[in-house]
Amino acid sequence: MTNVRDRVLGAVRDALLRAELPHSSCERPFYVVPHETAAGADLVGRFTRALVALTGEVHHADSLGAISDAIAGISSAYGASSYVSWTDEAMGCAGLVDTLTSRGLRRVAYDLPFDQPGRHERVRALAEVGLGVTGADAALADSGAVVLASGPGRGRLASLLPPVHIVLVKQDRMFASLPALLAARPDLVVAGSNLTVIAGPSRTADIEMTLTHGVHGPKHVHAILIP
């Protein structure tokens, strides 16, 4: 006797065999929202409101000194004395690492060996690092999200492991939405081995429907908007 599972799978299989894709005369098989180049200040305002609604925080800095001041203030607020980060070049902020060193913040290298011995000890040591500092390839005004492509000098761990993620966002990399970003920067999809869209601090409500922060990533996200 055919059971219910077999009947359902059979129906799906038969439907797929009869299915036909609709004809499309459009050069692009999908619709994308054009990149909004005007109203940059409005995009910044929308991004700020969206990220704050997600319990993230937004700061403004217009110089290397102001950026380092903001990062030093955040590190002091959370009692952090060390950080992992992208390189200065990847963050688009020349001299930042040296400036943070002069402020008493220690940068920790986070290249991990693929095999034992030593990998477990390195992971445990990195778990004690309080801050992760990265740049951003883009920011999305509608969701308060930042978009990060991984690659040389811009490792994924910096935005995932530490409890506090500080992301430097250039205001000219602000887009209205993800479709607008992909329309303007289709190359970004293949720019690195990994493309991450981060919308505020990590959160989940899987356990007894109780919202919990920091389960799968940073518990706090601070965006520093720079020219």
Give a brief outline of the structure.
This protein is of the alpha/beta class and 227 residues long.
Give your account of this protein's structure.
By secondary structure, the protein is α/β, with parallel strands linked by helices. It has one domain: NagB/RpiA/CoA transferase-like (Rossmann fold). The protein has eight helices and twelve strands. The protein starts with a helix and ends with a strand.
Question: Which labels suit this protein?
Answer:
alpha/beta, globular, 227 residues, Rossmann fold, 8 helices, 32% helix, 6-stranded parallel beta sheet
Secondary structure topology:
Elements: H1 4-18, H2 40-53, E1 57-60, H3 64-77, E2 82-85, H4 88-91, H5 96-102, E3 106-107, H6 119-126, E4 131-134, E5 138-140, E6 145-149, H7 157-160, E7 164-170, E8 174-175, H8 178-184, E9 195-198, E10 203-204, E11 212-213, E12 220-226
Parallel strand pairs: 1-12, 2-3, 2-4, 4-7, 5-8, 7-12
Antiparallel strand pairs: 5-6, 6-9, 10-11
